[in-house]
């Protein structure tokens, strides 16, 4: 895999909008020309993946102290659906997650470790997200190929990020995070590659997919082999219509019970809240993403 830039004659794109200009930001194809909401030091990469046989847009948020502390290395969180993570102009649902602003606030308050956030764009809506994020046969949505996307993250993107930025490379300081189908993938990545992704943040994960495939994976996971060191998995009570939301909350409880059966302890290395009134929207995930970040990546003692 070879990292490529948006402009082959330009250096790695760095965009800082705290008093800066929007003119240097080249929107991904199909990006919505809305008011820019990037905060802090955001670096843009276009990465070619042999595993996916295509290019992906990747935005990298660097904490405020990164340039000022050249001897320091940082934990990393890899977040799916990167179009919706930092900027309203490219958000594919109701709004962006605002992880850049949330991280800056939590870090500034001493509630979260200084962390690099890697927002990985999906390949598009619909079937391509199913292909990227799932690894089961669903009678309605078809069969996913998440193993290829996982190979991209684990074997191509992460080595590039580790070579380009000062990162803490161990599983205990590397998180994978996503919502909906991206939440399914976060669980899949943590269970499939716990030696790489030791921290898992799954918001409103699609536990229904493939005949509750993920619940079966959790039930069958190893109790004594490598596994994620910390897991956040949540569900709102208003994800969809009332009947379906009740079903999804039951799925969450079953997932929590499965993890507990394998030795996880609620409140220590397993966090599985039911979010009263929580909806299936970027705004809902934005509102609780801070809890996920500070739980998975608390400040060092």
Please describe what this structure looks like.
- The chain is α/β, with parallel strands linked by helices and 301 residues long.
- It is built from seven helices and 13 strands.
- The chain has helices at 99-108, 127-133, 146-164, 181-192, 209-219, 242-261, 282-296, and strands at residues 3-4, 13-16, 41-49, 54-62, 76-79, 116-120, 137-138, 142-143, 174-179, 199-203, 230-238, 270-271, 274-279.
- The strands form two sheets. Strands 1, 2, 3, 4, 5, 6, 9, 10, 11, 12 and 13 form an eleven-stranded mixed β-sheet that branches. A two-stranded antiparallel sheet has the order 7-8.
- Helix 2 (127-133) runs parallel beside helix 4 and helix 5 (209-219) packs parallel to helix 6.
- The termini are far apart.
- Residues 1-35 have low confidence and may be disordered.
Number of strands: 13
pLDDT averaged over residues = 87
Please tell me how large the radius of gyration is. 18 Å
Percentage of residues in strands: 15-25%
Q: How many helices in DSSP terms?
A: 7
Portion of residues within helices: 25-40%
Largest sheet: 11 strands, mixed
Classification by helices and strands: alpha/beta
Tell me the span between the first and last alpha carbons.
Answer: 37 Å
Oligomer: single chain
Q: What best-fitting shape do the alpha-carbon axes yield?
A: globular
Q: State the order of secondary-structure elements, H for helix, E for strand.
A: EEEEEHEHEEHEHEHEHEEH
Low-confidence stretches: 1-35
Quick gist of this model?
About 30% of the residues lie in helices and about 20% in strands. The protein has helices spanning about 100-110, 125-135, 145-165, 180-190, 210-220, 240-260, 280-295, and strands spanning about 5, 15, 40-50, 55-60, 75-80, 115-120, 135-140, 140-145, 175-180, 200-205, 230-240, 270, 275-280.
